[in-house]
Amino acid sequence: MDAQECLHPDFVLAAYQGGYFPMPDSKTGEILWYNPDPRTVIPLHQFHVSRSLRRSAKQGGFQITFNTDFTGVIEGCASREQTWISEEIKKAYIRLFELGFAHSVEVRNESGLLIGGLYGLSQGRVFNAESMFSRESNASKIAIWALISRMNACKMTLLEVQFMTPHLKSLGAVEVPKESYLSLLAVALSEDVKFTGEPTTSSALGA
User: Fold this and answer.
1) How would you write the chain as a 3-class SS string?
2) Does some domain include residue 7?
3) Is residue 120 part of a domain?
4) Which position among 19, 70, 133, 183 has the lowest Cβ density within 10 Å, counted as fewest Cβ atoms?
5) Contact 124/157 with Cβ under 8 angstroms?
6) How far apart are CA 104 and CA 132, in angstroms?
7) Domain annotation covers residue 128
8) Domain extent for 106
9) Total domain count, the chain
10) Is residue 191 a part of any domain in this protein?
11) How would you write the pLDDT of the chain (207 residues) with one tens digit per residue?
């Protein structure tokens, strides 16, 4: 199966429903599918907003939008020395965005410049966060905060973030056994909930 076939929207959506997500091999570019054990999630009620992050949100004048610049966000996430976000991955998720399954969170400064954000895939009550980027301090944290606020508003229940990192751990991420994740995923997929987003400001985060 070539990259075009295995990144077809129907195949990708089915893979996520089974707990898998794609990443290209760093040497060959072959699309590989991962279902790691343990799996990292951010329990929505455990998201940690530090004093410094709350202060930054109050003082930063951030503008937060959803789904207004998906391409800009995925390009921002890919714009680093080493990245797994290949051209095939970009095309696949842009197509999923066009179909209404992939979503982006954009964080802009007072001048309207895109300074951070994240993107991922939504089905049912689950959001699979794929990648994030930050061009100014705390911008990616603001994006996660905005995502979780929107997930709560949409009555979503599961935020999956793939692998643990110190950055994610500082925000309240935890590792769960794969079987536990798959059980949570099955429940989250059992109800049809639509992820939506409206432009907002840092004040809407409760900052």
Assistant:
1) CCHHHHCCHHHHHHHHHCCCEEEECCCCCCEEEECCCCEEECCHHHCCCCHHHHHHHHHHCCEEEECCCHHHHHHHHHCCCCCCCCHHHHHHHHHHHHCCCEEEEEEECCCCCEEEEEEEEEECCEEEEEEEEECCCCHHHHHHHHHHHHHHHCCCCEEEEECCCHHHHHCCCEEECHHHHHHHHHHHHCCCCCCCCCCEEHHHHCC
2) no
3) yes
4) 183
5) no
6) 10
7) yes
8) 36-205
9) 1
10) yes
11) 666 688 999 999 999 999 999 999 888 889 999 999 999 999 999 898 888 888 888 887 899 999 999 999 999 999 988 889 999 999 999 999 999 999 999 999 999 999 999 999 999 999 999 999 999 989 999 999 999 999 999 999 999 999 999 999 999 999 999 999 999 999 999 998 989 876 555 545 654
Tokens representing residue 119 in the block? 């993107």
pTM for this predicted structure: 0.93
